[in-house]
Design goal:
76% of the residues lie in helices and 4% in strands. The protein is mainly alpha-helical and 225 residues long. The termini are far apart.
Length: 225
């Protein structure tokens, strides 16, 4: 199952042309409003997602990338629907409704975030965060030394790499292993995939760290000259 979550898609839509600063504000505002108790605001958020989907010229793959939410939602709703007690367990209607509402809100946030990151490149995010950091560092100078913008932008841009590496590992294993296998073989293969994924991610993170250190060292040398 190939997943390309939060991966930038080149385009010329209305959302692509919006400044990264506005899109990040929209995303954080959207996230804060989704979890309010008012049903009217939830309906507005659903409408905003639909409008954003059209303005960003998204394709069916945008929804397809979030299909893993279906499995997570089913699990959460089932767990919420069961009420455990000393005498056994019973159906919990309020818990089920709570689970459905929570999963709906989580799906809306994931969907809107997918639209934002599909239309905003990692470079735009980094520049935007650096501008915010520079503005705040005028008030709080130590922020410039911490370089929070770099840490946050790296964390955000690392998310698509997780899914990209997983796709590579999964396809490599799929091409080498038989389709029909027993349960213990499937579990063993899954553990092997996860081990390979962690190894690839650590290698990618270390490569990124070394490249940043190299650029920082070169920029310091240029400044001294």
């Amino acid at each position: 199952m190939a997943v390309n979550l939060f991966l930038y898609r080149n385009g010329n839509s209305f959302f692509h042309k919006l400044p990264a600063f506005i899109k990040l504000i929209l995303m954080f505002t959207f996230c804060s409003f989704v979890f309010t108790e008012k049903k009217f605001i939830l309906k507005v958020c659903i409408l905003l997602c639909a409008i954003s989907f059209i303005l960003a010229k998204c394709r069916f793959n945008t929804i397809k990338n979030l299909r893993f939410l279906l499995y997570i939602s089913v699990f959460i709703i089932v767990v919420k629907s069961i009420e455990f007690s000393s005498s056994g367990f019973s159906f919990n209607k309020c818990g089920m409704i709570e689970g459905v509402l929570y999963c709906s809100r989580f799906a809306l946030i994931s969907f809107f975030a997918e639209i934002i990151f599909e239309t905003t490149s990692s470079l735009e995010i980094r520049i935007c965060l650096e501008q915010i950091e520079n503005a705040f560092s005028l008030i709080i100078p130590p922020l410039k030394k911490i370089r929070l913008s770099l840490i946050i932008s790296l964390a955000i841009t690392f998310i698509p790499q997780v899914f990209e590496k997983w796709n590579q590992v999964h396809l490599a294993v799929k091409s080498r292993c038989p389709k029909k296998r027993k349960l213990h073989q499937s579990v063993s293969i899954l553990m092997t995939e996860l081990t390979a994924l962690i190894s690839c991610l650590l290698r990618a993170a270390e490569t990124k760290r070394l490249s940043i250190l190299n650029r920082t060292y070169n920029s310091l040398n240029d400044t001294k000259k």
